[in-house]
Amino acid sequence: MLLKIKTLDIEATDYPLVLLHKDDAKAIGVRRLGRVNVKLGSKEFVAVVDLTERVVAKGEVGLYEYLCDRLDKSCGINAEVTLASPPDSVESIKKKLDGNALSKEELQNIIEDTVENRLSDIELSAFVSGVYTRGLSNEEVINLINSMVSTGQTLDIKRKPIFDKHCIGGVPGNRTTMVVVPILGAAGLTIPKTSSRAISSAAGTTDTMEVLCDVSFHKNEIEKIVNKIGCCIVWGGGVDLAIADDKLIKIRNPLGLDPESLLLASILAKKKASGSQKVVIDIPVGKNAKIKDENFARKLARDFITLGERLEMEIKCIITYGEKPIGRGIGPSLEAIDVLKVLAGDGPYDLREKSCEIAGLLFEMGGKAPRGRGKEIAEQMIDSGKAMSKFREIIGEQGGNAKVKIEDLPIGSYQHTVKSEIEGRIDFMDTRMINMIARACGAPDDKGAGIFFHVEKGERVKKGKDLFTLYAEKDKKIDNALEIINGNPIGVEKVIYDIVEGELSI
Prior knowledge:
This protein has 506 residues and is of the alpha/beta class. The chain has four domains: 2-84, Barwin-like endoglucanases, CATH 2.40.40.20; 89-135, Transferase, Pyrimidine Nucleoside Phosphorylase, Chain A, domain 3; 163-239 and 267-397, Nucleoside phosphorylase/phosphoribosyltransferase catalytic domain (Pyrimidine Nucleoside Phosphorylase, Chain A, domain 2), CATH 3.40.1030; 411-504, Aldehyde Oxidoreductase, domain 3 (Alpha-Beta Complex). The chain contains 19 helices and 19 strands. The chain has helices at 22-28, 65-71, 89-97, 104-115, 121-134, 138-150, 177-186, 205-209, 219-229, 243-255, 260-273, 294-310, 332-343, 349-365, 374-383, 386-397, 431-440, 475-486, 492-496; strands spanning 2-8, 17-21, 35-40, 43-52, 60-64, 78-84, 163-167, 191-195, 231-235, 278-285, 314-321, 329-330, 414-419, 424-425, 450-453, 460-461, 466-472, 499-500, 503-504. The strands form six sheets. The protein has a six-stranded mixed barrel. Strands 12-15-17-13 form a four-stranded antiparallel sheet. A hairpin with a 2-residue loop joins β3 (35-40) and β4. The longest helix has 17 residues, at 294-310. The radius of gyration is 25 Å and the shape is globular.
């Protein structure tokens, strides 16, 4: 059917989507969320269909403007629209929903169709749901990882071996990457670290590093930096490593689904695409951490190690305490301050300890330290100033000011300090609420927004003691955060700190 093109200045999905009048759709034989082949001159593509009676008239096909821009500078006047079949991978998704194993070829097709935007969000949601309810065998996970790697870019780093670290997540302020990378780099090890932005937290490593320098680089730029100085800390989303994983993450997060097999595949695909050979994975366990059960954490660790062997990666896992933030600052600039202080030989003790533990284990894996001595050597890298020098070199190579000082960093000009209303001891901190309040202050988009903690778990406080200070770049954001705190029926302290008379919990 020949239809007149109507461009729609509306933001749409990542996959091709067209709008048809319901009468034209009936004539073509396509239902809502079915597929049509759209031919515009020499251009041709398959699109998912949505239906309307008002936005486009009979005889028209609505094309979202971004789709026209991708196809040609001018969409022309008319398009030939005919019925099309869904990709074969849709049948494979149904197969997984039925509880059947998928072959290497079927997983490859699903990933290829994901990357090429041939699958709708509903179909990808069905795949995630199928994996969540039915699981994947180790063989399927390996095939999924290899498919993700083959359909994205891979780094070609000449300096070997390549080291890496990863944290499962769920702990505010956990900026160990920004301490571990310069420690390893100062000792001559190669660690091309790609990191993520915040999804539900107050800051990701990329958001914090961006306070100090650029983080978005193309593949060849990353390779040039790492081959020159041995390390980097960049945004993984800017280089399309295992790009299918990024698309699946967008589906998983709104659903709140994090299937174990997809978690394993997601992390290991990125490591494989980076060329990583020796990896430490941090698995925090806590009430509000991503992993809540220590037994499950141990199983996850065993799976990482087993799959790593299949992928020719040496993996070691550490199960860490995830019941409190790491560091004192929560939010991009505040976390960057913690990092600079630790590398200067000061700063939060817990951030230094955890970072040196991870770096030390990597030293031992790389033969740079005898067993049990790695942490000591990592600490020497900080105390000697070598780690700070390397960090400044990284900042300079990534386009930042290598001589940056703490006072140069942006901090929200609007502040409010919350004080304790009772006396007691702090024994719990609500990390979920901490992220919520820091985001209400404007983090991570507002770099200077967030929370600074004056006290931490285990400390005793008196009535009137400063508990934490909120920072925001807009007065209204402080109000937003205070609404969450003061609007909580269990009391100011219990929003973040579980405080009882005589025993104060944070």
